[in-house]
Design goal:
The chain is an alpha+beta fold. Among the domains are: 38-52 and 197-202 and 238-329, no CATH class; 54-189, Pleckstrin-homology domain (PH domain)/Phosphotyrosine-binding domain (PTB) (PH-domain like). It contains 12 helices and 11 strands. The strands form 3 sheets. The chain has a 7-stranded antiparallel sheet, sandwiched between helices. Strands 1-9 form a two-stranded antiparallel ribbon. Helix 1 packs parallel to helix 10 (300-331), helix 6 packs antiparallel against helix 7 (222-236) and helix 9 (271-292) packs antiparallel against helix 10 (300-331). The longest helix is centred in the first third of the chain and has 45 residues, at 3-47. It is globular and about 105 Å long. The N and C termini lie far apart (122 Å). Mean pLDDT is 75; it is low at 16-51, 336-348, 365-369 and 376-381.
């Protein structure tokens, strides 16, 4: 091969290589752009459910529909524990679901002394959570017990959205100024992807301290002690993707439990069950699907969108579940043990007997028959 032919061959190889590099670069760019578009689509899934930026909203209407909130409690091992807080239709009290007592507690608007934005109270300062300061506020109110004794209580509350905190602080102040107010129009804050709730979703410092405390005495047994220390270090250093994947099964389980609770016949006439609950659980399902369908963890905006959806869905699901549990408990208060026995018979019957059929079974089993095959009444036994 002559020198001219070798030079021509090198030029052709170089041109083919350059062309292939340009094609690969173009496809890579297209793939990145596609992923970014998908990330934006996923992030807009949850943001579309929130109020739009710059929109005028009625804060009292938002309060009446209810908002998931968590109480700041430094002694809790799991800080992510949201309950439903709601303004009564008469605008005279705040009702919230208390899980420990399975009741709806009331905070009279007339008993509220002050409302603080952010984390400015002493209890918040003792256990601060700076990443979510913009979603926090505190209520100072006077609680009067049955004996008439008054005690000042402080509720440090954390919302799952910035807009909810703004609506509640403005709405409460409006009702404190004018108890008969029916409207409180405010400018809604701009909605953005917010991953600040990760400070509650991740393994918290209290958990880390607890595991480390247990690891010290366990160090006497080298294998167990080393394994326990490794376990604590691993879970303390969770990434955003790891937090989302760990919480997704919890959301799925809550959705299934809520759907079962909504089938309860005793609560079908409740306004929350017939009105807000189906829409809320649908929203939770959409957030869950948007987060679960994300397979790419390369782009930061995709991971942030996934965590945002997980945080919102989990807060809403926890609040709905607790509210339904309280409603069912309240509905069963007027029932006797015999009514519950009938319900249990219906559930245990493999042939699918209805509640009326189960009642007939109980009645027939209580009939006494004499030697002639005749039914005997109570007075004849």
């Amino acid at each position: 091969m002559s020198m001219a032919q070798k030079v021509a061959l090198r030029k052709s190889i170089r041109s083919v290589t350059t062309h292939l590099k340009s094609v690969v670069s173009m496809k890579t760019t297209q793939a990145v752009l596609t992923k970014r578009k998908f990330a934006r689509k996923v992030s807009n899934m949850s943001l579309s459910k929130d109020r739009k930026s710059g929109e005028q909203v009625d804060a009292l209407e938002v309060m009446r529909r209810g908002v998931p909130m968590a109480r700041n409690a430094g002694s809790m091992w799991d800080h992510y524990d949201f309950r439903m807080f709601q303004l009564t239709q008469e605008h005279d009290a705040i009702v919230w679901s208390k899980k420990s007592a399975m009741t709806e507690e009331r905070i009279p608007i007339s008993a509220i002394q002050r409302v603080y934005d952010g984390q400015s109270t002493d209890t918040f300062k003792a256990d601060p959570k700076k990443p979510i300061e913009h979603m926090s506020f505190s209520i100072v109110w006077t609680n009067k017990d049955e004996t008439g004794k008054e005690t000042v209580e402080i509720f440090d509350l954390i919302c799952c959205r910035r807009s909810d905190a703004v609506c509640w602080t403005n709405g409460i102040r409006r009702l404190m100024e004018d108890p008969h107010a029916s409207v409180c129009n405010i400018d809604c804050p701009e909605q953005t992807i917010d991953t600040s709730l990760a400070c509650l979703l991740e393994r918290t410092r209290s958990k880390q301290a607890g595991r480390m405390a247990w690891a010290i005495p366990m160090a006497i047994i080298p294998i167990a002690g080393i394994a326990w220390l490794g376990y604590t270090i691993y879970y303390r250093n969770e990434q955003k993707r790891d937090i989302s994947m760990r919480r997704l099964p919890e959301i799925k389980a809550l959705i299934q439990q809520i759907n079962e609770l909504l089938k309860n016949r005793d609560i079908q006439q409740h306004p929350f069950v017939s009105g807000d609950a189906p829409m809320r659980i649908q929203f939770v399902g959409e957030c869950y699907e948007a987060a679960a369908n994300i397979k790419d963890s390369v782009l930061d905006e995709t991971v942030d969108a996934q965590l945002h959806n997980v945080a919102i869905a989990l807060a809403e699901a926890q609040a709905i579940k607790c509210r339904l549990d309280v409603i069912i408990t309240d509905a069963n208060k007027g029932k006797g043990w015999f009514d519950n026995f009938r319900v249990s018979l219906t559930a245990l019957n493999p042939f699918g007997a209805t509640e009326d059929e189960a009642a007939d079974i109980v009645r027939e089993s209580s009939i006494v028959v004499n030697a002639q095959g005749q039914e005997v009444g109570d007075q004849q036994v």
